[in-house]
Design brief:
This protein is of the alpha/beta class. Helix content is 35%, strand content 16%. The protein has helices at 19-32, 40-53, 64-74, 90-97, 142-152, 203-212, 234-244, 247-265, 295-298, 302-311, 342-347, 361-375; strands at residues 9-10, 57-61, 80-83, 101-104, 127-131, 155-159, 167-168, 171-172, 179-183, 196-200, 217-219, 222-223, 271-274, 282-283, 289-293, 314-315, 351-354.
């Protein structure tokens, strides 16, 4: 009989740096009296992340949601934006907050990313962009999406909130589309407490993003765009510089936990992994570990497993339940009709994000598997 955990086990925990190193950096910030607006820490982090993410242009932003809003502004997006209903609230909200209409497209049953085959029928004369999400860090079908965008003259903004470090055949995920957004929220593999960034492959666009995040200011005497305040401050950037030092070690720890989940849960009937093990050519972001539970085969539903795990003090998450297309604020859009989104409506009742962070450790991961095995 497996006993409940003494302390709660959450879906994730933030990766925290050495406190001594962080304090050392704080002292340097104090001495400099420069605490925001493109300071030294900010500049250093931007340079280091550019290398780590293998992108040519990167602009740090104060969080991923504002970054998405800025990306939409930077590309002068108007009218309708095709996106996925299987994502965090921030994705469609950024679209709607910019006065645009999200158009929800169904998802691929394997990757749970937007189904590129279903994008074309949703394009109207009002469509100006596609905003796919690399869900749980799995790359979208970037080639097919780009082909559609080229054919219909659409912009592509990727929500790469989960895709820090994701690569396709060694190419950083931020090199695809016009702009890619990263989130550096506390719950992400790499964090700056709150934070984010935009990657793009064009210097002029990076300059425009830099101005948009700073009120549209070009210089002391010229304000050239309706900008916002999307600046990352020195404390966030200092956190990022210290967290970055620990990211590789964290990825290794997560890799081991992932192996345990694969090994222990792989043979259970009715449990599958999202994405499938070892996607060819893909370097994982190790952001989430997600299973899909087929109630008929496993014997009990996803919701049953979620509730049962709570009794053992394990707090999994049903990311991304409910679908964004089910929120009150989007329910009246024509694209939310259930018959248009059959895969998304099925999948959203089957997914479960298991605890996944380095400090979880092998023993706890094994114990979580034992609990799950005894439920089914
Ligand atoms: N696009 C996508 C696809 C996204 O997933 C997100 C964010 C965004 C855009 C927007 O990016 P940001 O504007 O956030 O940069 C969390 C995060 O707040 C959110 O950033 C993230 N996605 C989303 C998937 O997860 P919640 O509401 O689930 O967070 P919360 O507070 O319930 O935290 C989850 C668990 O993490 C807790 O149960 C315990 C643990 N935790 C959390 C925090 C904040 C800690 O141990 N310590 C902490 O400080 O949204």
């Amino acid at each position: 009989m497996v006993k409940p955990f003494e302390k709660p086990i959450y879906v994730t925990r933030p990766l925290l740096p050495s406190m001594d190193n962080f304090i050392y950096r704080m002292k340097r910030i104090w001495e400099s009296k420069w605490i925001t607006n493109n300071g030294g820490q900010h500049q250093k982090l931007e340079t280091e992340l550019k290398k780590y993410l293998k992108v040519d242009n990167l602009s740090l932003i104060n969080n991923g949601t504002i970054a998405l809003q800025i990306a939409l502004k930077a590309l002068d997006i108007e009218g309708e934006v095709i996106t996925t209903p299987f994502t965090f609230a921030a994705t469609p909200h950024a679209i709607a907050w910019n006065g645009l209409t999200p158009v929800f497209c169904d998802i691929d049953p394997e990757t749970l990313n937007i189904d590129a085959k279903k994008i074309e029928p949703l394009i109207t004369e009002k469509t100006s962009a596609i905003l796919p999400v690399h869900v749980f860090g799995t790359p979208c079908d970037v080639e097919k999406i780009q082909k559609i965008a080229d054919e219909y003259n659409l912009k592509v903004i990727y929500d790469g909130a989960h895709a820090f470090g994701t690569e396709i055949d060694g190419v950083g995920i931020g090199n695809y589309g016009d702009i890619t957004m990263y989130s550096f929220h506390a719950t992400k593999l790499f964090n700056t407490v709150e934070g984010g960034a935009l990657a793009c492959n064009n210097k002029e666009l990076k300059q425009k993003i830099d101005m948009l995040k700073n009120f549209g200011i070009k210089n002391e005497e010229e304000v050239v765009f309706i900008g916002t305040n999307g600046k990352m401050n020195e404390f966030q950037a200092a956190m990022g510089l210290e967290v970055l030092k620990k990211v590789e070690e964290e990825r290794e720890k997560r890799k081991k936990i992932q192996e345990i989940y694969y090994q222990e849960l792989g043979d259970l009937e009715g449990i599958s992994f999202i994405p499938k093990k070892d996607l060819e050519g893909v370097t994982s972001s190790y952001q989430y570990f997600v299973i899909r539970i087929n109630e008929k085969q496993f014997g009990v539903s996803r919701d049953f497993v979620y509730e049962k795990l709570k009794e053992y003090n394990v707090y999994t998450r049903k990311y991304f339940f409910p679908l964004c297309s089910d929120y009150n604020c989007y329910r009246n859009l024509p694209s939310v009709a259930k018959e248009n989104l059959p895969v998304a409506y099925k999948v959203v009742n089957e997914v479960l994000s298991l605890p996944f962070y380095g400090d979880l450790g092998a023993k706890n991961a094994e114990k979580i598997c034992d609990i799950i095995k005894n439920i089914g």
